[in-house]
Each structure stands twice: as structure tokens, then as C-alpha cells.
């Protein structure tokens, strides 16, 4: 096994047998192929074969398949094995192998370790471990998720509020190495929403400079979740809020208002005329409603 590129293979699914193929081989009755490849350094085959063995009640054999990968210390193997151990009810072992990688300083291990603790009755301990590292974007997200289990939402909120600087300016959603103000605002809004303070959550999200991340607008989603369609409509009408336009269309479609959804996109100078991505979404919508000729025209 070439352990040096195990993480890269898992991340890119290149230079290896990918998970879909490993699963397909098992479905076609070619377990012997998967088993053989698992012993030749093919991580996705090892993981699939271990799961198959465990499903047959052969957990000890499954662990023997994974053990050489875990022994490399590569995070890909450790987190995959920990997930299986947790699923088998061997939580202490899952916690132990994850903790060792955390203590060795692996950058992703603290997130996984604390979430694992929180799932198994140790949320307070997990929260305390995360607090010193809240200036990291990933850890701050974990802190907010763990806080609700630990009953420490207000502590998390105070930590986040202290990291929102009015004078900071980002020109993109990933401009900061640490916790950027937009992410802090978003996480604080998450806490306020689950506390039932919807107006405060809305106000926080209105303060973001970057409104769209990974194709979603959190404010649009928040307004949609709480049935605030009038506010969503006004927000979607603002320049640069294309994702909000799409979310408004989804809300109207879900409510059976097809004509209303068409009106959002359809004006001759509307979003579909100005933005090819909007045109694509609108065409898909029209197709779903049996209006293929109009979709082609769009």
C-alpha cells in the first residue's frame, strides 16, 4: 500500500478504484475482486469490503482489513475506520483512534473528535476543547453545532459576537485565514434562529458583505423556512441576489403557484434574460411543468 497518497486518492478519487466501482463490484457478486484489491492498497475497496464483512457479522475480519490502513496514521483511514467503529457500537475505540490523531496535531481531527464526543454524551467536554480554537472557521462551525447539545448557546454567541469587526472588508468569501466576519455573522444567526429570535437572525444576515456562498444565500433560505415570502420577494428584487431569486421560485413552486414562479423569472428584462445561470434554472422549472418549448426558447 502506498500510504503517502492515500488522502489525495480519497479526496480526488483518482489513481484508484473509486467507491462507486467498489460498490458495483460487490453488487455484481465480485466480492473476491474487492477483497483482493483491498489487500493491494485500494482504500475504497477496503472500506467497502470491511462494511460488507461487518454486515455479515464478521466485525473482527472487517477490522483486520482496515487495520493496515489505520496503522499508517493517515486521516482518511482513521476517520473512515472511526465511523465504522461508531456504527458497530464500539464508541470508545472510535474516540481513541480519533483522539490520537488530534493529539498528533492533525488539522481535521479536533473537529471530528469533538463532534464524536458530543454525539455520545460528552458535549460539555467537546465544547471546552473547541473554545481556544474558535478563530478557525471549521472549528467555529463545530462549536456552534456542539453548543446546542451542551446547552451553551449563549457562550458560543458571545464568542462569535466578539469576532465581528465592523471595519473588516473582504473581497471574497474565503479572504481570511481564520474566522471572517461574514462566517461569524452566519453562525451567530444560526444560534439566534434556533433560539427562536428570527428577527435578530434576519438582521444579522443582512449585515453580510458576501451574500452567496456555494450557490446558496442563507438569508433567502432563512426567510423561506419561516414563511416570510414578502420579505424574500423584496430581498430577491435587489441587485446581485440571484440565489434569492431561485429560492423564491422554489417557495412559490412548492406552494403550487406556478404562474407566480414564472413571473419571478419571466419578464423580458428579468433574471433569465440577464443571467445564463438563471436562464438554466428557469428552463428546468418550465420543463418540470410540461412547457418544454418555452424552456428551449429560454
Question: Can you put this structure into words, describing what you see?
Answer:
The chain has a domain at 1-106. 67% of the residues lie in helices and 0% in strands. The protein has 20 helices and no strands. The radius of gyration is 24 Å and the shape is globular.
Brief synopsis:
Helix content is 67%, strand content 0%. It is mostly helical.
Helix content: 55-70%
Number of DSSP strand runs: 0
What Rg, in angstroms, do the CA atoms define? 24 Å
**Element-level helix/strand string:** HHHHHHHHHHHHHHHHHHHH
pLDDT < 50 stretches: none
Report how far the terminal alpha carbons are from each other: 52 Å
Q: Treating each run of at least 4 consecutive H or I residues as one helix, how many helices?
A: 20
Estimate the strand proportion.
Answer: under 5%
Coarse shape: globular
Structural class: mainly alpha
| Average pLDDT figure | 90
What is the makeup of the main sheet? none
SSE layout:
Blueprint (H helix, E strand, L loop, with lengths): L5 H7 L6 H9 L3 H8 L4 H13 L3 H12 L4 H13 L3 H13 L5 H11 L3 H8 L6 H14 L2 H9 L19 H14 L3 H9 L11 H8 L3 H8 L5 H13 L3 H8 L5 H4 L1 H13 L3 H6 L1
